[in-house]
UniProtKB/TrEMBL annotation:
Compartment(s) where it occurs, according to its Swiss-Prot or TrEMBL record: Nucleus
Pirin C-terminal domain mapped to chain residues: 260-365
GO CC field: nucleus
Residue ranges of domain Pirin N-terminal in the record: 113-207
PANTHER family for this protein: PIRIN, PIRIN-RELATED
CDD domains: cupin_pirin_C, cupin_pirin_N
This protein's name: Pirin-like protein
InterPro entries named in the record: Pirin (IPR012093), Pirin_C_dom (IPR008778), Pirin_N_dom (IPR003829), RmlC-like_jellyroll (IPR014710), RmlC_Cupin_sf (IPR011051)
Membrane spanning stretches: 49-69
UniProt keyword terms in alphabetical order: Membrane, Nucleus, Transmembrane, Transmembrane helix
Origin species: Miscanthus lutarioriparius
Highest taxon, organism lineage: Eukaryota
Length: 376
């Protein structure tokens, strides 16, 4: 018996092939007797049985089983199988961690201490990123009047508040969750000082500008915490400072194309975040510990900077019993020479020399430098 016939027999509740034989026999034996005039028109009992068998074979063999039988019930994946399938990274080229740097404390400014990761000798820069500091500062320490040229600073307050003033008359206070995106351009002199009692904490990232943008006029983009785009999906919260994540997009304009997202992951959650191919990217762990890049990798704890290799996305797992907080930052490389001297970042030594002269003599963007000092 063919497989198709067996399936139909099971579907109809028939017990065995013998039933077909006896049924055919009964059909032949129970046919009323008629006078035969021609065997062509009135076939014999044996011929009728053969004819019926041919019809049955045609019915079972040539008609697809999908027509005869109800559709198969979809296979329901068990929770463990579903979890295993969804935990696989949905990227063709998942990014892995290629370098791990502990942000160690060092003095900076006036009596202040920062944890620097990018900008140390282990990780001089990561085009287009020049420096990343995690600061934790209390009065009277801080960062009094100092110049910048040739890049942007992004200050993100994690806790507390910082007051800002510059020689063009711009001033303000950024509080917990606020962002200040400052384009220094051709030159600015400013101060950054604690605005409250106790410890003020935050991150400051330096982003390089291309040679064509290094001498543009300074500008600011400031976002209060309430205005930062947010999204939350499956235990993962994203605050999008630049770029896009989890369907939310930032209004910040980035001259150097940049992605900057603050993620908080609940225990047991996981994240698969796309990152533009060809961009350099890193993670800085603010609090907790997580598994980055590969599911079987060792967990990484707070104050570590993880440089990511090439690929189209990053996967993260929080297997701990406490929340994990980290920032994911990526940027399009400029591919230009980087020459840095303190707060000046240009493309050649001659341009650095010119920046120092401009600042000292108060010209080419630093005209107000000699007549101004902050209230700090």
């Amino acid at each position: 018996m063919t497989t198709t016939m067996m399936r139909l027999r099971q579907h109809l509740g028939l017990a065995s092939p013998a039933i077909y034989t006896s049924a055919i026999g009964r059909l032949g034996n129970n046919t009323p007797h008629r006078r035969r005039t021609s065997t062509a028109i009135f076939p014999s009992s044996t011929q009728k049985q053969l004819l019926l068998l041919v019809i049955l074979l045609f019915f079972f063999v040539l008609i697809p089983s999908s027509v005869l039988l109800p559709p198969a019930r979809p296979r329901i994946m068990s929770s463990s199988a579903s979890d295993s399938a969804s935990s696989a990274a949905p990227f063709e080229k998942p990014r892995a961690v290629v370098k791990k740097v502990l942000a160690e404390s060092q003095p900076e400014g006036q009596g202040a201490t920062v944890r620097r990761s990018i900008g140390r000798h282990e990780l001089r820069n990561l085009d287009p990123f020049l420096m990343l500091d995690e600061f934790s500062v209390s009065k009277p320490a801080g960062f009094p009047d100092h110049p910048h040229r040739g890049f942007e600073t992004v200050t993100y307050m994690l806790e507390g508040a910082f007051a800002h003033q510059d020689f063009a008359g711009h001033k303000g206070t950024i509080k917990t969750g606020d962002v200040q995106w400052m384009t220094a351009g051709r030159g600015i002199v400013h101060s950054e000082m604690p605005a409250g009692d106790g410890v003020q904490k935050g991150l400051q990232l330096w982003i390089n500008l291309s040679s064509k943008d290094k001498m543009i006029e300074p500008r600011y983009q400031e976002l209060e915490s309430k205005d930062i785009s947010r999204a939350e999906v499956d235990g993962v919260e994203a605050r999008v400072i630049a770029g896009e994540a989890l369907g939310a997009a930032s209004p910040v304009y980035t001259r150097t194309p940049t992605m900057y997202v603050d993620f908080t992951m609940r225990p047991g959650s996981r994240l698969h975040q796309p990152v533009p191919e060809g961009w350099n990217a890193f993670v800085y762990v603010v609090d907790g510990e997580g598994v980055f890049g590969r599911e079987k990798a060792a967990p990484t704890a707070a104050h570590h900077c993880l440089v990511l290799g090439p690929g189209d996305g990053l996967s993260v797992w929080n297997r701990s019993d406490r929340p994990l907080r980290f920032v994911l930052v990526a940027g399009k490389p400029l591919g230009e020479p980087v020459v840095q001297h303190g707060p000046f970042v240009m493309n050649s030594r001659a341009e650095i020399q010119q920046a120092m002269e401009d600042y000292y003599y108060g010209k080419n963007g630093f005209e107000r430098a000699s007549q101004w000092s902050s209230s700090a």
